Amino acid sequence: MMSTLPTDRMNALGQSLWLDDITRDLLDSGTLERYIADWSVTGLTSNPTIFDHAITHSASYDGTIERLLANGLSGEDLFFALAIEDLSRAADLFSSAHARTASVDGWVSLEVSPLLAHDTEGTVASAKTLHASADRPNLFIKIPGTAEGLKAIEQAIYAGVPVNVTLLFSPEQYVAAADAYMKGLERRVEAGLTPDVRSVASLFISRWDRAVADIVPAPLKNRLGLAIGKLAYKAYRDQMDSDRWQRLANHGARAQRLLFASTGTKDPSIPETLYTDGLVAPNTVNTMPEATLKAAATHGTAAGVLPRDGGDGASTLGEFTAAGVDLTALAEKLQADGAEAFVQSWRDLLLAIETKSAALAKRKDKSAT
């Protein structure tokens, strides 16, 4: 009998629920374990902004930072060591889900430095190093699905590194990411290697609606993100049904699952669960901020799944085009702006680490006198 809890229903309908958050407090308090036990959470994503906020506004990392500083680490090296500690703990909490689903689920994600965005070889080398350092089979390395990132995604997959392709905004960008993934797998098959290297493709949703909020008429507000999600899901199913994918599946490849990201709402006039209720689909993932997870668990509806054919997604996009929205240009802008924001978030994170490190060193000197 299907559970009455909304998050359980989403899981029963075939969708994995992941938390878009990671802090030392979340781990130490047992909160993440409760989300796993009570709300069907089976994975986790992270980003520099999350770590920046946690380091800046909490003392939870002070001891670890002091220890890493004493070991001679600083800057990016210190951050990655700190992040891997947290994500390794989280990966262990999800290890049972990883085993139960034959490695389909139970993943955590760590992002490569966005400062390497135009350095394919550097990105791949970093991805391999980070994955090896964590020594966890259920760790994804996040690589942006930008034009520059696609080659790095292909090479990382070929190297056997599981990849979370991030910063996708349109069905077309998703298809490009899927192509890079399959190219990497095809190279593995040609080399006599197993193509069972996992990946997710992360499609950002809510930023669409925020981008057009002030330029479209009221009847179109908060409808664009869901329409993009519907058509991306159609593209995802089309990829899985293609002869190209079926040939790879015949060699043992598993689907690069579509992941709906940026599913928290900012507009107080719409339901908190707009994107979680509206984007349920089998063999997909929805990663959500903690507040959105709580809303989904307590008053979500999760009434049904996305239509295989994209439903009214195409007609809805037609309404936006008629209203003067250049969807192709907007998708490119959202991705470019997102990549720029990633770089700024990374710089902010490194500044937070530098500031915290200096404060801890000063405190240590004062206590020694």
Would you give an account of this structure?
There is one protein chain. The N and C termini lie far apart (66 Å). α11 crosses α12 and α12 crosses α16. The protein is 57% helix and 12% strand. The model has no long low-confidence stretch (mean pLDDT 95). It is α/β, with parallel strands linked by helices and 369 residues long. α10 links the parallel β5 and β6.
Order of helices and strands: HEHHEHHHHEHEHEHEHHHEHEHHH
**Share of residues in helices:** 55-70%
Structural class based on helices, strands and sheet pairing: alpha/beta
What global shape is seen?
globular
Stretches where pLDDT falls below 50 for ≥5 residues?
A: none
The helix tally amounts to 17
Report on the biggest sheet.
8 strands, parallel
Strands in their spatial order, largest beta sheet: 2-1-8-7-6-5-4-3
